[in-house]
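name: query_chain
kind: protein
chains: 1
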Amino acid sequence: MKVTFDSEADAVYIYFIKPEAVKVSYSVELSHNIIADYDYLNKLLGIEILNASSLIGAPDSVKALEFEDLWEGDK
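structure:
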């Protein structure tokens, strides 16, 4: 898993699959400002949260959510 925050877009993206491993085939708006991305096999690849600062909290709280390369099995 990888969680990133884009301060310019005010968006959090939660990757469940390494982004370079597979291509997004389609996206579904789960609710206002929350979008799920799927591959061609309907596997959930990631979730994007738009307007993250207002949905999750202050910008500092959102930045604290950042994690890098927490892929299971990676060393």
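note: The first strand starts at residue 2 and ends at 6.
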